[in-house]
Amino acid sequence: MKFRPIKPRSPHLNGKVERSQQTDKAEFYSLLDKKDPQLDWQQASAQWENFYNQERLHSSLHGKTPWEKYLEVKAIIPTQEQIQHQYQQKKETVHARNNYFFQWQKKIIWLNSLGLRHLRPHLSLDYKTPQQVQHEETLIFTRLGSQVIS
Questions:
Q1: Predicted TM-score (pTM) of this structure
Q2: How far apart are CA 54 and CA 58, in angstroms?
Q3: CA dist 111 to 16, 17, 99, 115, 116, Å?
Q4: For the chain, which has fewer Cβ within 10 Å, the N-terminal or C-terminal residue?
Q5: Residues 6+ apart with CB under 8 A from 139
Q6: Tens digit of each residue's pLDDT (9 = 90 or more) over 74-84
């Protein structure tokens, strides 16, 4: 799995977590008396977690519990050893958020260092402004509905 960080204060880019928090708020926190001094939050949250994962049916899982779904797909989930065996660092490339923009910036710095401040490098058709890249990422994450992509 690759971790894809999102911008702060961007709940629209993190739909699954937001949906989970909405369910917790509606079905767990709203039923508790938060002012009750006898309330054991650890015990209550552990019971909620158990109920949510092993007893509550989920429409997104076609009427199954998360535990039932896990048992169904358990055989196809790779182990840590399998992942490490198949991992090839040479195939993992890391690109700057807007690689074209940074290349253009480097060219400007280089021209300035030569005393050619009046020249500007030609922008290729591939150039994207930071706003265009951000918009594209927003569309991609909205379609995927998650910050984690397998």
A1: 0.50
A2: 10
A3: 46, 46, 19, 6, 5
A4: C
A5: none
A6: 999 888 888 88
